[in-house]
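Run log, item B.
One chain of 347 residues. Sequence copied directly from the ordering sheet:
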Amino acid sequence: MGKKEIDNSIKSYREILSGIKGGSFKPFYLLMGEEPYYSDVIIDEIARNALTEDERGFNQLILYGSDVTATQVVESARRYPMLASRQVVIVKEAQMMDRLDELEFYFRQPMPTTLLVVSLTNKSLDKRTTLYKSALSNGVVFESFSLRDDMIFSWIESYIKSKGYSISPEAALLMGEYCGTELRKLVLELDKLLTNLPDTRKKIDTIEIEENIGISREYNVFELTKAISFRDSVKIFKIVKHFGASPRQFPLVVTISALFMHFSRLLKYHAIHANGAKPSREEIASYLGIMPYFMPEYDHAARNYPLIKCMEAISLIRRYDSMGKSSQRGEAEDGDILLELVYKISH
């Protein structure tokens, strides 16, 4: 999915949250898409703001798609609230519900005293269906998309900032590499970090990552790619030896993927400078999918790995990735394969 679509989805998510927190509700919300974290937050905010604590006991109903039919959902939504102006019906994991299309008639004529939330996890409706079109015409439809790898670091910074803290670029990079783009996992780990921070500490650094998450500041793929960028042989082989001794903690496939991403960015760096354009440092960093803070490393790496050398590195990475996944490896351990790969790349 393109950056524009993802940005528009996040913008829509924020607008929906703003409306909910401001007390503006629609008859129903259809939540769907690749990233369930956003739907989780919207559901939590609706549950928190649509009813008072006293009203929830009789007027908030949470259902699961595997346990109910569409007919039962409609019957629940058609009921009247008890001693309240509205009731809230939340259907989670709705993609598991049989005959989901039967909700289409309700979407066309929703109950004004019911706030219905239908959440599909890791699935979206076909936009050509009458179910989707009816939902779009009469309620709120939100579709989420997974973040791209190059967007996760700015997302981490934004999330931490919203909590009143800051995070160093190195720490954000470590968290992004550890958690990937799975926001549920990422938020869980970030919240754990914030909970364990001393009251006087307002910034997350790599020391907090190591102490609370267990990611070594010295032995990680970020430090490996950095050492390769600067051709720091001592550090390269120190990290590779550590990786080889702990193959479960540092799977070869993950390390090779990080190396491929690193040299792919470096290839983009060369391409930008080869076409005669003169973009700003911020524009180059955005194109590479890195924070501007890390641009000096790529400047240095570009000198150590000219275009031809960079292309050779990518070819080597592909070859050793294939080797690691096939019988071509013979009796070689993961550590042996990685050691040979980084030696050839850096020499």
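Observations after the first pass:
- The first strand starts at residue 28 and ends at 33.
- The beta strands are 28-33, 60-64, 87-92, 114-119, 140-144, 166-167, 203-204.
Flagged for discussion on Thursday.
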